[in-house]
Specification:
The complex is a heterodimer of chains A (273) and B (271). Chain A has helices spanning 2-9, 25-45, 50-68, 76-107, 115-130, 133-144, 148-172, 176-184, 189-223, 231-240, 244-272. By secondary structure, chain A is an all-alpha fold. Chain B has two domains: 3-51; 75-270, MetI-like fold (Orthogonal Bundle). In chain B, β1 (3-6) and β2 (9-12) form a beta hairpin. The chains are: A mainly alpha (273), B mainly alpha (271). The interface between A and B is large, with 59 and 58 residues. Chain B: It is found in: Cell membrane.
């Protein structure tokens, strides 16, 4: 009875949901307010020509139709040439990229390389990572002329930054006890790499290489737009000609190849690990 | 354990003879594939251009330096456009990606048979087509300008945000969902109180990460007419104004470095 009286005398309390992300209310309002002001400013500067957009809707509809009923046959010659260029470019650039990035990756691992080699390799990685493929492709096309060779060089260059960085991080994360054990046998540097490092990083290296193969194919579709050959050039031409059914077919082929390679690479990765 | 024999003594070996043979065959196949691809790819290459490349590189390099510093005044507005394109595009991508992610996650999708495959297909197609290609298409459809760039960035972001978000949703702690369900909460309340708080940090991290990538991408979208820095780049390339090109590269580089730093800081603060 006393407990009931106690409960009745207490003021009713409601549970209030705690804030989800930003705990301090002042900071929360500053961030929300700032975001709102920015949004108004940003949307204000976007000039949209609505009549042009309205005109374009009909084309958009034709593109969707082209995507649903793709036309593989009438431009098949161009498509197959572009596709072969893209695929060969992808394979060669991935292989060359891996061959170059393995030594750089080892050099960029703090636990294996002396300081000056480490700095040089990290600088190479930083340069390769900071520019997008398209910008590299513009420069290389200007130097090497149009065609898949410039594309091959671009993708190899981009592969180096990606793979070396991840490989170096992986080498830095290895289980040191195994390296210690191999060192204790009196092994030299090469033997250390071969017997202690390589078995530990190999599964991940294979996984990353397959992943990069995938990325390189996708990128090969892009750098064609600036003249580096491949399926991107074919796609660019077909959009310029307003042949949306061919463009739809090319995009479906790209999506299909990416799906197949993603699916098979996830299988291979499981099998390797 | 594979054991070989050297001079009559059993010796430990890493692999069986069959595994060694298979490994060699695999490597041989890879080398053959590489050589074949190399042959096909270089069939149409004009080697004279390749031999000439170092001279070209020196020539272009000498034209590119020094960068035209004064040009930066004309780059400020395109830079603002580029930032807006990336931010608004990310916002559009988030708005489109969240429902797709909930449809694609195995534990929140209303129908595993029908809606989940559709959502997964949307994610894959958005991921496989680069934003430059989306922009190429959209410029043809809705005309050149920032809007095409924003929509292109948004469409490309669906796949990235959708994939990472639906993986995060699938990995949530089920016991919290059960606890909220046990109070008699409705579907919407379960979503609000059990699922959203669990994925919110991941969601913010993914969004900021994508924003950082989008800044990189929006800088070059102008090459196909979608506004921003890329438009200036295209204009300068067309008239072979290499010192301006260098200046634009420097601005892009600076923006990318700053946005990467910001995104790393924000992600550190959240998670």
């Amino acid at each position: 009875m006393t407990s009931a009286a106690n409960t009745a005398s207490l003021p009713r309390r409601h549970w209030k949901r705690p804030p989800l992300l930003i705990k301090s209310p002042l900071l929360r309002w500053i961030i929300y307010g700032g975001a709102l002001v920015y949004l108004v400013l940003a949307v204000g500067t976007v000039e949209v020509n609505w009549s042009r957009v309205y005109e374009g809707l009909e084309r958009g509809w034709r593109f969707i139709q082209g995507f649903l009923v793709p036309d593989f046959t009438s431009r098949w010659r161009d498509i197959s040439v572009g596709l072969v260029e893209s695929l060969t470019m992808t394979v060669t650039s991935t292989v060359v990229g891996i061959l170059i990035s393995v030594p750089i990756g080892i050099g960029a691992a703090r636990n294996l390389a002396p300081a000056w080699i480490y700095l040089v390799c990290r600088a190479i990685i930083a340069v390769s990572r900071s520019f997008q493929e398209v910008i590299i492709a513009i420069l290389l096309v200007a130097m090497f002329g149009f065609g898949p060779f410039a594309g091959f060089l671009t993708l190899s260059f981009a592969t180096i930054g990606f793979l070396s960085k991840l490989l170096a991080e992986d080498i830095e994360d290895i289980d040191e006890t195994q390296a210690e054990a191999i060192r204790a046998t009196g092994a030299g540097w090469w033997q250390l790499v071969n017997y202690a490092i390589q078995p530990q990083v190999m599964p991940r290296l294979i996984g990353l290489s397959l992943y990069r193969l995938d990325i390189n194919f996708r990128e090969s579709a892009v750098i064609g737009i600036v003249g580096a050959g491949g399926i991107g050039a074919t796609l660019n031409t077909s959009i310029d000609r307003y042949e949306y059914d061919s463009a739809g077919a090319i995009m479906l082929i790209i999506i299909g190849i990416v799906m197949v390679s993603e699916y098979s690479s996830s299988h291979i990765r499981k099998w390797v690990q | 354990m594979p054991v070989g024999k050297i001079a009559g003594q059993p010796v430990w070996q890493h692999r069986t003879p069959r595994a060694r043979l298979a490994l060699w065959a695999g490597w041989l196949g890879l080398v053959a594939l590489f050589v074949y691809c190399w042959q096909v790819m270089t069939e149409t290459t004009i080697w004279a251009f390749v031999h000439d490349a170092p001279a070209q590189a020196v020539d272009i390099g000498s034209r590119m330096l020094p960068p035209r510093w004064g040009y930066i005044e004309k780059l400020l507005l395109p830079l603002w456009d580029t930032l807006n394109m990336a931010t608004l595009g990310t916002l559009l991508g988030v708005i489109l990606a969240v429902p797709v992610a909930f449809l694609a996650a195995r534990n929140t999708t209303p129908s595993v048979m029908l809606l989940r495959p559709i959502a997964l297909f949307i994610i894959v197609s958005s991921r496989s087509i680069n934003s430059l290609i989306w922009a190429l298409l959209l410029v043809a459809i809705i005309g050149p300008g920032l809007l095409a760039g924003i929509v292109a960035i948004g469409l490309r972001s669906i796949g990235f945000i959708g994939k990472l978000l639906y993986e995060a949703i699938e990995e949530i702690d089920v016991s919290q969902v059960e606890a909220v369900t046990a109070t008699g909460a409705s579907r919407g309340q379960i979503m609000d109180y059990a699922i959203v708080p669990q994925i919110l940090p991941a969601f913010c991290g993914i969004t900021v990460f994508r924003w950082d990538i989008n800044i990189r991408e929006s800088a070059i979208l102008g090459l196909v007419g979608a506004g921003g820095l890329g438009l200036q780049l295209q204009a300068s390339l067309n008239v072979l104004a290499w010192p301006q090109v260098t200046m634009i590269f420097l601005v892009i580089l600076g923006t990318v470095v700053v946005s990467e730093w910001v995104s790393a800081k924000v992600r550190q603060a959240i998670t």
